[in-house]
Amino acid sequence: MHSHLMQCAKSFPAIAIVGPRQSGKSSLVRMAFPKHQIVVLESPDIAAAARNDPRGFLASFKAGTGAILDEVQRVPELLSYLLEIIDDNPVPGRWILTGSESFLLSEKVSQSLAGRVAMLELLPMTHAEIALFPGKKSAAKKSLNTAIFAGGYPAIFARKIDPTLWISAYLATYVERDVRNVLRLGDLSTFQRFLGLCAGRTSQLINASALAGDAGISQPTAKAWLSVLEATFIVKLLPAWHGNVRKRIVKAQKLHFIDTGLACHLLGIRSADQLQTHPLRGALFESWTVSEIMKLQASTGERGQLFHWRDQNGAEVDLVIARGDMMVAIEMKSGMTFHSEWLRGLNRFAAAQPAQSTLRRAVVYGGNAPWIGDSAEGVSWSDLKLFADRIFKVGAQIKILKKTRA
Fold first, then answer.
1. N vs C: which end of the chain shows fewer Cβ within 10 Å?
2. Domains along the chain?
3. Under DSSP, is residue 358 helix (H, G, I), strand (E, B) or coil?
4. Are 291 and 256 in contact (CB under 8 A)?
5. For 153-177, how does the pLDDT look when each residue is reduced to its tens digit (9 = 90+)?
6. Which residues are 332's β-sheet partners?
7. What is the DSSP string of 319-338?
């Protein structure tokens, strides 16, 4: 991510980095831009000053000085005023924006800074990044259950904190601050129950009506709350693949928790050992793998183009990656022993594609040894970075928000 951030800083006057709270956005930009002045807009007094006099606030930064506006979604109206400054002096890399609510920040950025900003996503750490911490390399390489249970938030590994303790505090902060701020909720208990129900549905197709019934809320409310969970980077709603598939497919989105440590905590899992016999271990592994690929994709500067596939007969592929005229179909299995049945969905998906399409098939599984078959390759869970590097080897394709004619 650092190299792509610096690449953008050479070309664009503003860079917006979005991601969940505590994913390392502030640490990244402080390291990358040590001479920039830092303003944390989450502080009530600073946010109030920015709202009351946005022109004066932005004018306080000298022309030759760069600025980091941390948690800029707290004062989104600043972006409209920032447009004038950028147009008058479009120095590359001067304005660095971070935010933990993607829909608020992205909407304002697209309206106010179109054509002037590069958008990047920073998600929690990958398995490969966690292995770089002292003492973590060998343990992380050997234990899939530990990887799923601990998740990827940097503080857990940097401070050597028990994941259960840290995640408990994180969830309390998230619900009390981010959710209350976005939804204007009074009683948060219903939302907390809804969050737990979502954890129990990780890696499942979303049925908003059933979820609403279990949570005791209306279907529109359930859909709105799911949108908030996605906008605050708690879950990813994976759309169904529909391009060039002749047979009817299921259109429902598939829910994945971006951090399986959070999902484990909400499910009452309090140790990695509990995962070995837990009925949702396979579902958690699928979400962990999808999340890893999302993170590795984001680190190259790319976003989106990830889908799931399921036909009317129940054949499915856990993840479809679309890259131009090439597709990668991936099945995820937490077991360590290969079974030919694992290839059923991949083969059905391949048969449904046009003859001229370029398709690559893979199974990410819980074993440690890679393998090559006649129609697919086996990828060890611990070698996902090597696999993703081959997929995304084209390099960064930074999403640029373009101007549209009025």
1. C
2. 2-122 (3.40.50.300), 127-391 (no CATH)
3. strand
4. yes
5. 999 999 999 999 999 999 988 877 7
6. 364
7. EEEEETTEEEEEEEE--SS-
